[in-house]
Amino acid sequence: MRILHILTLAVQMMGVSATPAHQHGTAGTIKTGDGVNLVYNQTGPRNGQQILFITGWRQAQVEWKKQAEYFASAGFRVTTYDMRGHGDSEEPEFGYRISRFAADLNDVLNKLNLRKVTIVGHSMGCSVTWAWWDQYPESRHRASHLVLVDQAAVIAADPHWPAGQAEQLGSLFSPTAIYDLAADMANQLESLVRSMFTPSVSEADFQWVLAQNRKMTDAHSAALFVDHSFRDWRDVFPRITIPTLVIGGEVSVMPPAGIEWIAGQIPGAEKYIFSAAEKGSHFMFWENPTKFNSLVKSFITKK
Fold first, then answer.
1. For the chain, what is the radius of gyration of the CA atoms?
2. pTM
3. Sign of CA dihedral 119, 125, 127, 131
4. Alpha helix (H) ranges present in 195-277?
5. Name one GO molecular function term (predicted).
6. Spatial CA neighbour of 67 closest among 38, 44, 47, 92
């Protein structure tokens, strides 16, 4: 017990507060560089291959539970966390921009000392990953693989682009539509989240995911949505130098053409588009976890 107490004090001094979750798991908090407490969970063998899952906009880490259970059982050390304002993490009145979320990700990687980690980002989690890669080149050595799940290079379509460019990039909204949605977030949220699933999703599952979304305030999520929508990541893709898998869905709210375009910009990247029959929605990892988990595992373990 004395040794455990000393170890607990040590991690707290490093800005990490940890409590045992079960034999191979840890739940705790990380304090970011600007003083915000983020909740994290780790499961699986402590010496297992590292994999980190990052959620999308308004989502909570528990939505990765089908992946956490699978990969922990397969011998991986799985890390998930709630971004600021999301899930069970602290919701401060500041910092709802992708650059700050990338700084938070860098804190997670460094304070949990993740090494040779596969980063799996979903939707806005891809944007956070791209911002991290761009802003923190000194930390890139911590990542061994990237899995980028269903995020366009830029959401806002520039009205001055040549004809066809918005379709090529999978850009979803005009600038005006982005601000209109943000201003009416309370009324638009349910239909927006429903559009991320196929009609076959159960109502119980949909309502559970919607409840996770509602843990974040509309005001903070609107500010983040606007910032996220106008970020343009096209110049980052050619500078990604580690093995990358890009995943999309045939019936996703994110047009698959934009996902395929990204895969073509990242040197050596692989891609997979879930078909309609494979429940290729924006949430294909929830609706078809067997296929998704197998695909990711095969990619990161192949020789």
1. 19
2. 0.92
3. negative
4. 203-213, 218-230, 256-265
5. hydrolase activity
6. 44
